[in-house]
UniProtKB/TrEMBL annotation:
Signal sequence, renumbered to the chain: none
Origin superkingdom: Bacteria
InterPro entries: Ap4A_hydrolase (IPR050126), Calcineurin-like_PHP (IPR004843), Metallo-depent_PP-like (IPR029052)
Organism: Pseudoxanthomonas kaohsiungensis
Name of the featured protein: Metallophosphoesterase
A Pfam family this chain is assigned to: Metallophos
Ranges where the Calcineurin-like phosphoesterase domain occurs: 11-141
Length: 342
């Protein structure tokens, strides 16, 4: 497996996270000038940053459409954390569509009932295709990755030849041995036992638990595949409550320290297409894009761009009757740097 692969030459359109929103993807592709088969009158080609699936109304249709364009040489696609979860067999919010109907964990909570289900034949072909996807694409002037361009992780993965699941598990085992040797799990376990009830109580007063913070941040940032697909984390100065528990580690806005010459385009981070005050109110934890407008280039050289504008929230907007949608799917036209939304 070659995890870091060459990016298309010539004009490309880089599409952000899709999250199963097939109608929105069709609108976006039409606005970009592509026909349903992914052909463009000027020869442009598509690049998808991953997270094609989960939460939306038709993940199977999105995967089939993108895979067909990739096979035809009209598109490239990299692996996102949501596809990686499926490869690893991880049950996460919004991916019950990939399970058999009697094993759909989302159905238990009454969520995502309108999402199209995968067939048995699709499940196998999708798994094979996900396992063929690279983790990053690069050319002299441009890099594309799902969540984070992390040089140390990229270099490790350049030399990794195992398949996706085998590589993930081997790298995870290596990191676990490191944490065991450093004694990190001992303090982590003690803190979990002592604060078990409070950790899921949003009204509790929980101090910074350094053992939990160290393990959580290193298990994320120290795993090359997780770093590229889910980003970097570090111990936070102040615990915060998000997605059901108190957090001792926070995401790192790595683009603020990105000073390489090639531009880098990524998704993953739920960049709200709203004014900063509204975006901060909606962010899960600290607003990583504080100080930037929703469509601004990022970093000291202004050559990093997040193209995930929260289309993954549309399932909730539909349930709440929100119209028009706030969450959008978008694309960056390279080299004009025009941003096109659905």
């Amino acid at each position: 497996m070659q995890f870091i692969q060459p990016l298309f030459d010539g004009p490309i359109d880089i599409v952000g996270d899709v999250h199963g929103e097939m109608p929105a993807l069709e609108i976006l592709l039409a606005r970009l000038g592509y026909d349903p088969a992914g052909r463009h009158p000027k020869g442009n080609r598509l690049v998808f940053v991953g997270d094609l699936v989960d939460r939306g109304i038709d993940s199977p249709a999105v995967v089939e459409r993108v895979a067909e364009m990739v096979e035809a040489g009209r598109a490239q696609c990299i692996l996102g954390n949501h596809e990686l979860n499926l490869i690893r067999g991880q049950a996460k919010e919004g991916n019950g569509w990939f399970q058999a109907a009697d094993a759909d964990h989302d159905a238990t909570g009454g969520h995502f009932g309108a999402s199209a289900r995968v067939s048995d034949n699709q499940r196998k072909s999708f798994m094979d295709w996900f396992g063929s996807l690279p983790l990053a694409l690069e050319r002299q002037d441009l890099r594309v990755v799902h969540a984070c361009w992390h040089p140390e992780s990229v270099e490790i993965l350049r030399h990794e030849t195992r398949g996706t699941l085998a590589a993930y598990e081997a790298l995870d085992a290596k990191l676990t041995r490191r944490l065991e040797q450093e004694g990190a799990f001992t303090q982590h376990a003690q803190e979990l036992r002592a604060w078990k009830a409070e950790l899921t109580d949003p009204n509790a007063h929980v101090p910074l638990l350094e053992g939990i913070g160290k393990v959580d941040s290193l298990k994320q940032s120290g795993h090359p595949m997780k770093a590229l697909t889910s980003g970097l984390e570090r111990m936070t100065a102040t615990p915060f409550f998000a997605t059901g528990k108190w957090r001792m580690a926070e995401r790192v806005a790595w683009w603020n320290e990105y000073e390489d010459a090639p531009a880098v385009v990524f998704g993953h981070y739920w960049r709200w297409p709203l004014a900063e005050e509204d975006a901060t109110a909606r962010s899960r934890g600290p607003n990583l894009f504080s100080g930037y407008g929703p469509f601004e280039w990022l970093g000291p050289r202004r050559n990093a761009l997040c193209v995930d504008w929260c289309v993954g929230v549309r399932w909730l907007e539909r349930r709440q009757g929100v119209s028009p949608h706030v969450g959008r799917i978008g694309a960056l036209r390279w080299e004009s740097k025009e941003i096109v939304l659905d």
